[in-house]
Amino acid sequence: MIDLLLRDLKLSVRAGGGALIGVLFFMTVVAVIPFGVGPDLNLLSRIGPAIIWIGALLAALLGLDRLFQTDRDDGSLDLMLMQEQPLVLTVLIKCLSHWLANILPLVIASPLLGLFMNMNEVAIGAVMITLLVGSPALAFIGAVGAAVAVTLPRGGLLVSILVLPLTIPVLIFGVSASYAAVEDPAPFLPPFLILVAITMFFSVIGPLGAALALRNAGD
After folding, report:
1. Which of 130, 54, 53, 144 is nearest to 98 (CA)?
2. How many whole angstroms separate alpha carbon 93 and alpha carbon 21?
3. Is the sign of the CA dihedral 74, 96, 91, 217 positive or negative?
4. Whole-angstrom Cα distance, residue 85 to residue 143?
5. What would the pLDDT profile of 78-88 be if each residue is shown by its tens digit?
6. pTM exceeds 0.85, yes or no
7. How distant, in Å, are the alpha carbons of 21, 78, 161, 215 from that of 156?
8. Phi/psi at 26 (nearest 5 deg)?
9. Which contacts qualify for 101-104: CB closer than 8 Å, 24 or more apart?
């Protein structure tokens, strides 16, 4: 499993541009917001957590179609289907490698974009923590869509269409927890714990659904 994790990380680095394109797209989405809403710094600071979460969500969808497509093209997917170890565990490792290579850089870049949106230190920290906790759920959800579309020649758009509605609960509670950290009457812990529960739920359901879809595709 460690070898598979290191292999996927090396492939992500050798492919080039995956994490960089995601971060650049993330920055572009956030950077165009001030041009649309105007130079009101108070307004930007209020909507900042939601904008950063939406930008991270959209950027996380990039590259999902390649999660299993590369393995299918070079024949590695057939070997994964025939191996003795559970396919669910293999899918889990691939989800973790995708998160480390493509989504974690978005979390690291979020404080810089928080400053760009005139957010204070507490809000920036809250957004980063909620992204760190909630973003793995995006990888687990995306694995299901990538597995369903693995046999399609151009399944990138289909993956986004399948995955985006399922990510709405992650977005809702991630933004709610971020706002609660800076608004005194709103408690931070309840939405944050729900976000943790959502990530744990999809960490089980996501690999199971993706493994089932890959089995059906292999048949």
Report:
1. 144
2. 23
3. negative
4. 19
5. 777 777 778 88
6. yes
7. 15, 21, 9, 20
8. -60, -50
9. 101/8, 101/9, 101/12, 101/13, 101/18, 101/19, 102/12, 102/18, 102/19, 102/22, 102/60, 102/62, 102/63, 103/22, 103/56, 103/60, 103/135, 103/136, 103/138, 103/139, 104/135
pLDDT at 17: 54
Residue with tokens 């480390």: 100
Mean pLDDT of 120-125: 91
pLDDT tens digits, 149-189: 887 766 567 788 888 899 999 999 999 999 988 876 678 88
pLDDT digits (tens, 9 = 90+) for 47-77: 999 999 999 999 988 878 777 877 777 777 7
Residue with tokens 């939405």: 191
**Could you tell me if 159 and 142 are in contact, meaning their C-beta atoms sit under 8 angstroms apart?**
yes
